[in-house]
Queue: 3 jobs
Job 1
Amino acid sequence: MKKLQLHWQIIIGMLLGISFGIIAFRYGYIDFTNNWIKPFGIIFVNSLKLIAVPLVFASLVKGVYSLSDISKLSKIGGKGVVFYLFSTIMAVSIGLLLVNFTNPGKDFSNDNVEIIIENNDAQSKIDVAEEVKNDGPLQFIVDIIPTNIFEAASKNTNMLQIIFFALLFGVAIVLITKEKTVYVRGFFDGINDIILKIVELIMKFAPYGVFSLLACLIVDFGASNELFVALAKYSITVILGLLIMIFIFYPIILTIFTEVRYKSFFTSLSPAQMLAFSTSSSAATLPVTMERCENGLGVSKEVSSFILPLGATINMDGTSLYQAIAAVFIAQVFGMDLDISQQLTIVLTATLASIGAAAVPGAGMVMLVIVLGAINVPAEGLALIFGVDRILDMLRTVVNVTGDATIATIIASSENQITTLKK
């Protein structure tokens, strides 16, 4: 098992979990599964929750103070940030439109919903919802500003406050001379590497976590067909959204802002896209992405060396789109109807969370914990989608890399720093 790549390990864990769940349900090993198998799934989900706050804070602070190079490339960097945020917001919006149209989680019966939420305090969520209704129109903005950062860090539901403080902290580092912040920068560089290593260690447990989660899910649902129908609709919705980004959204903005032919763009970038698909890591693909943008697309080294690393840090279009669809899907399974304000919260949270998302396999799932917490949807719903997440992770990483290259091409074209692929 150790010699296999992680995605194959997770796929094997998924298949074994489904098989075990079906056998356990048919032969009456339900108590055994709940007592001896389910705890490992809970441990895995808790591990993801555990790392969410430090991952976002360390990655986001490092990403912000890395913009100190903007003193030399302020114009290029400013354009990059604007386009990255715009494409991320569009990705989340496309995801929300699709999931609200297909309603993949509506296939679950009320009985199955009750099975999932039986261990959750539904009444407390209703009480919170009633309190929100009585808040003023600007309460959402007020809630973003924490009164105590340590209290905010104690709950994943306060992640927007963590993001705000991380942004403020990073900006303050940029405004202070490097001589005075050299140790702080070194500290966060080290902390960021440590956190990424912890994520890597947690993801090694993923095959066993997936096995446990799916086995218990099958036992709870009685191996019903509606589970697989809902997962199929969910997966198709995510894939459709990702295809829209690659074959509709990116070609449109390339046509509007550049003279690059998208067919040539796609052909030149394809090696980086294939590597992104196989590794599920924007960071691992970054050297190839830079080489393809410079030698294949004709983007200047000045632009690629600044915009692409920035994009690997703050631009996660595929991940953001998936988070929007997954959050609404899980909410639908729980029988929760998200109003417009909650869906706008998804747009804001997924956009900001993407800034702090590590460019490594599995980070999107960690970021989803943040989005779910922001709209008060139980994180246990991750069990529903983990079995199909690895394949979708491979696809959304392709979108992440394609989005980075698209923005880099646009910026290079606007600065007249692109030499090939003209019409």
Note: The longest helix spans residues 30-65.
Job 2
Amino acid sequence: MGYSGIHEKAPRGCYPSISLFTGAYGLDLGLERAGFEIRACVEKNPFAVQTILRNRPQLAGCVLQEDVRNVSAYRLLKIAGLRRGEAALVSGGPPCQPFSTIGRRRSVSTEDGTLFQKFLDLVWGIKPTFFVFENVKGIISAALRHQPLENRKNAREPRGKKVRLGSAWDFIRGCFDKTLRRDKKYGYHTYIWELNAADFGTAQVRKRVFIVGSRNGYALEKPIGRFASCHRPIRNVISHLDGGHETLGVDYRPYDAVRAHIFTNKLVKPGENWRVLPKMWQKKVMGAAYYSWGGRVGFARRISWDNPCPTITTDPRGRATNLCHPTKARPFTTTECALLQGYPEDWQFEGSLTQRYIQIGNAVPVELGEGIGRSLINWFEEGCS
């Protein structure tokens, strides 16, 4: 590391930020709205990089299209025009698939599952005033070694030290403490925030976990969204698109003739799912999941106009996470998903239809990023005055 100086705080009104695992810029767009200036980004997906540069051409030369494992703190600081300790924030969310409850949950046994360690290395090298690490809520219950339901002998809680629910989370938190508190003078105090995007104005129930680090023990308060007591319904966000707006999306046919029949014939009304179907259709749409346990609320689900949307995924046709339009026999389009993630209507996504859904589904909702950003900006503008 070529820089050795540690600067106590960013100048008033200047909050330079470095973004890791940037994706389609959802979190960063929210941080921008809060007052941060994105100086450098790292994202290996070429289509996401094209999306960033399409909407933020001024970042040309500041976006590294590389695997974050191959990027050094020195290089990021050079691109950002900063010295060690001058960045106000380092933010990012490594891939969530290793920890998601709808995946195989291989956790820290995969390469992607250990990317949090690279995040820690870069934070230590950059030494920002704050850092924000984001991931799915499932990271809290992840085990060092996942034990599938069918192997638990009808017990919901797996037995054994490595398969204990939450054992991977304990390991990850231990790594954060060990890495970031080793310097008594410039170590970090960490906060764990579990936040729901709907509380901050996103018309979507999307719960995420954030590890927020504060250098030198600067005190932070957990942000409280002003929509916490009254979530926005999707009607307020996407109902105007029925007027002929240009939009792209997938269909159920010929992908899934069963669901195409169910939604075309309106066997499921807005706000309902597979449970209202005749048993014959329940078994057809559920498959083996029909004999499983749990709510399974996402199967053959039609979304209601009057509530926020469930979590947007990378494929609105997911069998267990289905997102059917309230009145049409189709899943949500890319434009609808993007608006439900808080993107502005003029935000352009690059790549194929599949790639666009992936970028949108993996993003942090913009309003949630803004809420976190404002809680940090408040410290600069009030707490350190």
Note: The radius of gyration is 22 Å.
Job 3
Amino acid sequence: MVLKKITMPLVSLMFLSSAFAEVPTSYSPVAIKESFDDTMKRLMKEKSQVMSRQKKLLDERYDLSDSPVSGLKMTRGKPIQGKVRAKLPKGMTWEKLQAMSPEEIKNKDLFPAGFWPLPHPKHQEGGMVFPKFHIDENKKQTGRDLTRFDVDFDLPDHFLPEFPPAIFLTTRPDLGDVSQGKLVTQKNFFQMFNGILNPKQLEGLRLLLTPFPQQQFNMTEDRRSASPHEGVTCFDCHANGHTNGATHLVGDIRPQPNRRRLDIPTLRGVNVQRLFGSQRALKTVEDFTEFEQRAAYFDGDPVIAAKKGMNILDRGSQVHDMSEFQAILDFPPAPKLRVIDGKLDPKLATEKEMRGQEIFFGKGQCINCHTPPHYTDNTMHDLKVERFYKVREINGRLTQKEGKIKTFPLRGIKESPPYLHDGRLLTLEDTVEFFNLILETKLTKDEKDDLVHFLRVL
């Protein structure tokens, strides 16, 4: 039997190759054609350029100086940054800007750079990126190195939550902060919480501290860690059940330029929330926990998840146990708030704080989304920020319409910088200025200052 050699003209092969390359896809490449050593050398060489580009963007947008508010600190003593950090266009003032219509701001390209969507430090790939202080402490305790050889975290430490964060439990409010000033890991959780948690909660905490494969931290050749990696834990981002300011990209949007940077939210107070995920509107913390392990860890790509080691959690026991612990994470105390309605106690609040509360519930329109006592309405809203700017690409991120975003609780907000879903607002002053412009409330300088003072005591 003679086998005939099948041939195809070179032009046809070139056409097929070209056509294949141009077809849009939602999937990441599965078969890697480059050796790991070559990939690492190439990306390490590109890293300085990636970080220089991001630093230039941040410097153009913000005043990044370390300028804390005198006497204002988080629970464990970290100073809180003050003043508006977003830079204005040359010759512009906040008063002039808020007097203009959205159309005029858009047409004249006057929207402050610090209010534009913030790209991931390496938006073309995304993935989890951790602040150095967390990387160092985690490596010291567990030996796992969360350093990426292709990118570093970008925002300065003084704009991030304190580390390690305090831990408050709804079940044991008498204990106050139970963190002991430590980062909770697999190495110490049992000694710290045995006798405080029940066995199911302890098991849930153990699972929240257990590393599982993730898109950039795994054992395959397309990881972004120098050595094969066990993976990441839920509490690598949600440090001590709070947040360390780590960043990621949302997994449920394609193509890549349309994906949004994700500022890791706190898990404090999840027991009062009814929506999870900034846009996904997952209905329970159990849904959120399972979704993170099955999909978000791998950019929502089940093909890659199967390759790298998807962690299939058992809903009836493992997910349930993890959720039991998450559900007892409490907000920090707010001694100036009344028990009955979550509003200020006039006997304890200052005049500025009382005036700020009046603005919050009145002219500022904050109450439309952030209702007491937890200051959330557990729904989603579209701010339509795109009214103020033209679509463009910034460091790999497209400034397109973003749609509805969940209302995050404002309880304990002073301990969760930076703000908005992508962390583009560095201080509470930035946040008030942003919403004053977006909602067109035209607050005076004194009214904005009073509102900031109110937010600090929530």
Note: Confidence is low (pLDDT under 50) at residues 1-20.
